[in-house]
Amino acid sequence: MTGSTEPAVLDLSPAPGAAPPLRKITAQTGHELRALLRNGEQLLLTLIIPVLLLVLFGATSLLDLGTDRRVDFLAPGVLALAVMSTAFTGQAIGTGFERRYGVLKRLGATPLSRTGLIAAKTLTVLLVEVLQTLVICGVAFGLGWRPQGDPLSVALLLLLGTAAFSGLGLLMAGTLRAEATLAAANLVYLLLLALGGVVFPLARFPDGVRAVLELLPITALSDGLRQVLQHGAALPAGPLLVLAIWAVAGCALAARFFRWE
Amino acid sequence: MTPPGNAAVELDGLVKRYGSVAAVDGLSLRAERGAVTALLGPNGAGKTTAVEICEGYRQPDGGTVRVLGFDPVRDARLLRPRVGVMLQSGGVPAQARAGEFLRLMAALHANPLPPAALLARLGLTEHARTPCRRLSGGQRQRLSLAAAVVGRPELVFLDEPTAGLDPQARHATWELVAELRASGVAVVLTTHHMEEAERLADHVVIVDHGRVVAAGSPTELTGAERQLRFRARAGLGLDELLAALPLGSAAKESPAGHYLVEGDVQPEFLATVTTWCASHGVLTEDLRIERRTLEDVFLELTGRELRS
């Protein structure tokens, strides 16, 4: 209590009221964005690692990618990784600790409400993804990337991927202890990075294993983006279907089992 | 919008069970608008559970709850802007800066207090840019209190608002609570500091084992009875003293050299005791008249055994 400012006279008389819905959601979104962009570990996961992988394997021939157009193969995979890092890993860890520190509980008693909080979290994830996409595409273009395909298919894949990973991330954050979420979310990130066709071509795996790996959301997203951006396909049915199933299942399970405190 | 003539909080026969244990077991109380109501009780008495039911966090298993005339779960949307909440622990994000968190809480309300002025008021101006995880426990408590009042609520629930605070911070909290009351805000707080309840509350509700064991104003609870204490050399003839005092008075020496005289302590009563001492050449030390404290009442009602 060493405040140097003269204690202000405050009008404490009741004047209750909720802010308009849009202002509540933008305030919460701004708050979440600031916290995220200021967090070094989150930035490592969401920006530095994806860009590093793109540059490392795009500019060198350390890894046999089965094509000379290295960036055309890598960029879609790295975009998929970016979506996973933000919607799944980052969101799971962040929300897990918010739950542990009682922040979710406290926000539940404000006029924001749970629906508003989820809207703000979704908006935050989408805004971070826009930033990631801009940075990754910029670097990829610098490495000579020549994307094909229609933007609509790309947007649809990214949105479905975001929904699937968000559902799974929130399911984890809302059911496990915060420390367990931290460990598990990072482990899943690493495993899916290695197994999901992000930078290591799936063709290297035996057929039987590959068939299973293709059902993973990260594989569906990176493969779908590759079909469009590398090979010019429109609305790749297989990956879209896999992502849609994960999205519905993930969100339904999160809605059912998420515990706020 | 508010049903007229309602108390800030009305609980009637409230029951909340966890498994076979009833954390709240038929609790009834009334907290008036514009008054401070203190829920006093040992650990595990059910204070927090009762408050969290009022805040809409839990659904009771029995009884009725009315907060500002509304049902806290069903009418949550209507109540949230009007009720300020300070949780017993947690509720402050780790990453955000103190000032940012309070500005966010302000932005969720229609007519908030200016966050900077509120921070200044609670001595947190210098920490406005400190990440919350680096605040001390006491600073976090004060930030939590600020967040509870920033929306200019009609009713605030403060769950152990001064637990772990240093004396300066405790006084700052007490002053703010007194000011809230003076501004017409209803305050419901839980505490196990008797001094806090005695000092702040218009109405004290003593809770034990999930039930109300006594309720009233601090004076009603402590009663009008006074007693006299002094120290003097050991082994005074108390029978002789009692003979000089009105019938129904009592005196005892425990431990040796410490005397307690009970009775209708009026000016004459005091004069009789000191005259008697003077006539015996006894110089009393630490002579004082005291009222029963809330702590005496509390221990009488809830027992002296330790609670987990």
Automatic annotation (TrEMBL), chain A:
Source taxonomy: Bacteria, Bacillati, Actinomycetota, Actinomycetes, Streptosporangiales
Domain of life: Bacteria
Membrane topology, from the record: Multi-pass membrane protein
Keyword Transport applies: yes
Family listed: Belongs to the ABC-2 integral membrane protein family.
Keyword Cell membrane among UniProt keywords: yes
Protein name: Transport permease protein
BP-aspect Gene Ontology terms: response to antibiotic
Keywords annotated in UniProt: Antibiotic resistance, Cell membrane, Membrane, Transmembrane, Transmembrane helix, Transport
Annotated TM spans: 43-63, 75-97, 118-145, 151-171, 183-203, 237-258
Localization terms from the record: Cell membrane; Membrane
One of the record's GO molecular function terms: ABC-type transporter activity
InterPro entries xrefs: ABC2_TM (IPR013525), ABC2_TM_bact-type (IPR047817), ABC_2_transport (IPR000412), Nod_factor_ABC_transporter (IPR051784)
Ranges of residues in domain ABC transmembrane type-2: 41-261
PROSITE patterns on file: ABC_TM2
GO terms for cellular component: ATP-binding cassette (ABC) transporter complex
Pfam family, one: ABC2_membrane
From TrEMBL, chain B:
Superkingdom field: Bacteria
SMART domains: AAA
GO molecular function: ATP binding; ATP hydrolysis activity
Principal subcellular localization: membrane
Membrane topology: Peripheral membrane protein
UniProt keyword annotations, A-Z: Antibiotic resistance, ATP-binding, Cell membrane, Membrane, Nucleotide-binding, Translocase, Transport
Protein location: Cell membrane
Domain ABC transporter: from-to ranges: 9-234
Record Gene3D superfamilies: P-loop containing nucleotide triphosphate hydrolases
InterPro entries to which the protein is assigned, alphabetical: AAA+_ATPase, ABC_transporter-like_ATP-bd, ABC_transporter-like_CS, ABC_transporter_ATP-binding, P-loop_NTPase
Protein's UniProt keywords contain Transport: yes
GO terms (BP aspect): response to antibiotic
Protein name: ABC transporter ATP-binding protein
